[in-house]
Structure formats: C-alpha cells, structure tokens
Amino acid sequence: MPSRRGTRRPAGLDRSVGMKPTAVLTGASRGIGAAVLESLVEDGHHCLVIGRTEPETIGAAVDFMAAELSDRATVAALPAEVMSYLERRGGPAAVLVNNAGGGYPCPADVLDPETAAAEVTLNLLAPMMLVRAVLPGMIAAGAGTIVNVASTAERPGVPYLHAYSASKSGLVAYTQSLAAEVAPKGIRANCVCPGAVATEMATTGRAELARLHGLAPGGYEAEMARRTGLDRLLDPREVAAAVRWLCSAGSGAVNGQTINVCGTLSMR
After folding, report:
1. What domain range includes position 225?
2. Can you tell me which family this protein belongs to (predicted)?
C-alpha cells in the first residue's frame, strides 16, 4: 500500500486570469532544492513541493505534499495525486523540476536488491511518474519546462556509486528521449548535472567514499574540491542558477541538453 501522504494547505479552485504559474518541485527542504525553490518563488511561481521533509521556505506561494519518493507504491500513486492538485489549482504546471535524489556508496558485491531498487525508484522512476502527471496539462497548453537534476557521476564511472550512477545515467537518457517526443508540442526537457556540491547529504556520502578508498577523513572531499578547478566545492545556489535559467524564457532554444555545473570536474 502507498505510504500516507497529505498536501499542506491545498489550493482551492483558482481560475483567475492573474493566477501565478504553477511549478512542481521535488526535494526542496535543503541544499540545491531549497535554492531552486527560492528562485522559483522569486520568479513568480506558485510551488508545489513534494518530498519527505517540509521546506523551511513556506508561505502563501508554497504548498507541500509529503511523499517518500524512494517507495515504489508511493511513486505509483503520485500521478493521480499531482493531477488532482493541479485541477484544484485550475491550470497546468508551467514548470517541473525533478531535484530529489540520492544514494549511498557501497561495494558492488554487497549491494542488495532493496537498496538498488530504492535508489532507482528515487532517481529515475519518480521523475518519470511526475512527468506523467504534468505532461497532459503541458501538452494542452502547448508549453512547459521540465528540468531533471542528474549528476556528473552518471558519466566517468565512479567506484561504489553503482545504483546511483546507473539511475542518474538513465535519467539523462530519459530526458533526451522525452525532449525528442515533446519538442513539437512546445515543451522543453533538459538535465542539469551538478558535480561536487557543498550539501549535507553529499558531504555524508563523500565521507563514506573516503573510507572505502582508504583515505583520511575529508580526503575524498578535498580531492573533489581540487578537481573542480576552483579549489572549493560548489555552492548549491550555483546549481540552482542553472536550473533557474533553464526554467526561463532566455533558454527557449535549449532542449534535450545536459548542462554540467561542476567547474572542470567533468568536461563531457
């Protein structure tokens, strides 16, 4: 059975001409997602945030739907719930940002099927189902923007990040396939691939990678900072700036593309 979810302060029917465009965003309680949420609100969107934890940025322009996005049954139920929310809003989503994601490093010979399935559900299946939720309205409107947040880990082959890398690589391929399908309908779909970002979740993962590589505590993180060419980790707001641009009219000619935000960590 799907886990229990609820929408905080659901919006009523609002069909006014001046209604704010709706943006759907996953994983906005901290890090990159919190920075993306801030920018979307600044740009005049009414945001539905979906995820495990309610974001700190809560106000009249933000609704929250609690959902465990690594749970397959929960994710399977999302399209109907999001479509119901959009119907109550009285219009389609103008923007979808699939930001929620994650994984935990481990050796390939101890990766269990439950962990792998949860990471694939979170990083790939959930974005697919949310696209399913918003796409009918976007097609009817003849416009819409989808941004999927992947990772530079999908390309070079990062030891110990097996399910994470595979699912993020799948997200990039899915985005390209989606863009080819929906471009004639006036809809854009692009990927942003962050590199070494200074977030709490990423720092925890890099600490475990240091241990698995036999490095001193902080050694893996220091190496990632060096490889950015900036001698530092990236600020989440730098990634959010790329997402913000892809959600704007200024990127209207960009579709089916993958944009790295990682310094020189990856140049492919």
Report:
1. 196-233
2. Belongs to the short-chain dehydrogenases/reductases (SDR) family.
3-state SS, residue 223: helix
Tell me the pairing of strands 258-261 and 187-194: parallel
Residues 161 and 52 in one domain: yes
Helices 236-246/31-42 angle, 10° precision: 40
Residues 148 and 186 in one domain: yes
Beta bridge partners of 44: none
Q: Rounded to whole angstroms, how far apart are CA atoms 247 and 144?
A: 9
Other C-beta atoms closer than 10 Å to the C-beta of 10 total 14
Indicate if 164 belongs to the active site.
yes
Place 7 in a pLDDT band, splitting at 50, 70 and 90.
Answer: low
How many domains are there within the chain?
2
Residues 51 and 143 in one domain: yes
Catalytic residue among 160, 164, 174, 220: 164
8 domain residue, yes or no: no
- Give the Cα separation of 86 and 144 in Å (integer): 14
* Residue 33 one-letter amino acid: G
Residues 229-260 have pLDDT tens digits of: 999 989 999 999 999 999 999 999 999 999 99
> Are residues 42 and 167 located together in one domain of the fold?
yes
88 and 162 assigned to the same domain: yes
Distance CA 252, CA 259 (A): 15
- Same domain? For 248 and 120 the reply is yes
Residues 119, 73, single domain; the answer is: yes
Give domain status of residue 5, yes or no. no
Q: Give the residues across from 46 on adjacent strands.
A: 22
Joined tokens for residue 124: 């790939």
Q: What is the pLDDT of residues 181-232, one digit of tens each?
A: 999 999 999 999 998 888 888 788 888 888 888 888 888 888 888 888 999 9
In sequence order, the β-bridge partners of residue 63 are 48
Identify each DSSP E strand in 72-215 by its residue range.
Answer: 93-98, 144-149, 187-194
